[in-house]
Design a protein that fits this description.
binds 5'-deoxyadenosine, 464 residues, alpha/beta, binds iron/sulfur cluster, 13 helices, five-stranded mixed beta barrel, 19 strands, single chain, globular
Length: 464
Amino acid sequence: MDETRRQYSFMDEARQYVAGEAARLGRPLTYHVTTFGCQMNARDSEKLSGILEMIGYLPGEEEEADLVLINTCTVRENANQRVYGRLGQLGGQKKRRPGMVIGICGCMMQEADEVERIRKTYRFVDLVFGTHNIFQLAELLVRRFRQREMVVDVWDGAKEIVEDLPAVRKYPFKSGVNIMFGCNNFCSYCIVPYVRGRERSREPGDILREAERLAQDGVVEIMLLGQNVNSYGKTLGTPMSFAALLREMEKVEGIRRIRFMTSHPKDLSQELIQVMASSHKICRHLHLPLQSGSTRILQAMNRRYTKEGYLALVERIREAMPDISLTTDIIVGFPGETEEDFEETLDVVRRVRYDSAFTFLYSKRTGTPAAAMDCQVDPGVAHRRFDRLLREVQDIAAQEARRYEGQTMEVLAEEVNRQQAGMLTGRLSNNFTVHFPADPSLIGKLVQVRLEKCCGFYYVGELA
Ligand code: 5AD
Ligand code: SF4
């Protein structure tokens, strides 16, 4: 609580500075946060925005904002390249408007080489911080306002979890809620454990209190966030399982839908399957990253399950919930992957029949064990496998999507459809998208929609 109070006092101090600038310019100051990467980063950006709004910045367009913050991802190489492209453009903008504040934070900044590159090559940057101290944004800004040179503050590891700081929400009716931070799994290709640190769970009381507040504020759908939600609670003073947390979450009045992300297959318990199956609030969707269908490659990836183990788990899940939608992540071209290994991946895809899959070309991340492995796969071979996998995944997903055609299902109306006037876009419990003609006043409401036609990955429907 002390740290929370400390940060609010920095917000006060920064607010005075921002108000002074606004008075001098005769207009309010604006901010823009650009987010790369996963749901975890998206939630972090909502917290960063919350602090900035508390300080007196108004949301604005990136091209003209007085403060621009880039929240980076480093899980694959191309994410880094995009960040530097964006920074280059911002440098040009700052030449024309020297008063601009440019900040960069997130996973990429946890890597010493990247911070060095910013210091040397992108000297116009004002603020550099990492994943462990986003709660310090106001404090860092105050330092920047005082010292007028680049402020770099990146922590090697996390300290306490700072509760009760402000956050804005992209949608008024749904919100992400962090239940844990970091990851202890050390999959051999993955940089996340190095940049997000060791696994830490929030106290269940803090999580439930946040959910209750959100519900009072009109939120009906909550997405519980963690790198591996299935190992929630193991590090708490009084350990608690993820399934037990879900049971508590179910009791929060006003919350109608509960989602979560991401599940590691090795930790998915029978208790969780039972809690999901008997729940009316937990959505009928499970994102269950496969990564590879070859037991040999899974072992080299340090995933700690086999092809057969994964398939047996899917069978148990489907037995308990025949209507569940399964989605996954798959990496193609992991070091040493042979044609036979790749065929095993295709085999799992054909047997499980995912409703969608994120497919990735293996990307070598310096510092991870896989980067040092021999027999990196030829990029041409990897690309051809990637294309074959994508075609398979898309064909199956398109066939599977049709299974709900003609049915009437509950939809959370989420936004006005940007392509077609008079249409809203919403989501089914199983995460499928539906477009249907309706009045924007229904946004944020759960409505019954008849799914008239399946168009590949989405439905077009009518209010029932
Ligand atoms: N190369 C390619 N994909 C990766 N992922 C994580 N690390 C890498 C990497 N080095 C993928 C995994 C993970 C998803 C978020 O990103 O599939 O589940
Ligand atoms: Fe990375 Fe594996 Fe942790 Fe997921 S579970 S964040 S893939 S190390």
